[in-house]
Amino acid sequence: MTTASTAADERIAELRGEIDACDAEIVRLVQHRLAVSQEIGELRRATGGTRLSLSREQQVLARYQDALGPDGATLGLVLLRQGRGRL
Ligand SMILES: O=C(O)C(=O)C[C@]1(C(=O)O)C=C[C@@H](O)C=C1
């Protein structure tokens, strides 16, 4: 193996460590978001409200779309579905 490829391999391993840390944090945040979303849903239903808040969903999706583009909107939909189930 050349010196250059060894250095690249070491850097790739280091960067993968960063990705692993990002992924662990993302999973933690997704789990936290799910718990918060479910608590809101329970509170709304317990007080006679609707199962969903579509205007709020539009706000959430717009935020993901603005930050991340069309794939962001897809990601936002997946997160919403986690909390409230399928439409
Ligand atoms: O913000 C709310 O009212 C929620 O119930 C949370 C949440 C969400 O996960 O962001 C989930 C379902 C609603 O339709 C809208 C938003």
UniProtKB/TrEMBL annotation:
Q: Name one GO molecular function term.
A: chorismate mutase activity
Q: Which source organism does the UniProt entry give?
A: Geodermatophilus obscurus
Q: Which InterPro entries match?
A: Chorismate_II_sf (IPR036263), Chorismate_mutase_highGC-bac (IPR010958), CM_dom_sf (IPR036979), CM_II_prokaryot (IPR002701)
Which BP terms does GO give this entry?
Answer: chorismate metabolic process
Residues forming the Chorismate mutase domain are 6-87
Top-level division of the source organism's lineage = Bacteria
Classification via SUPFAM superfamilies: Chorismate mutase II
Protein name, entry field: Chorismate mutase
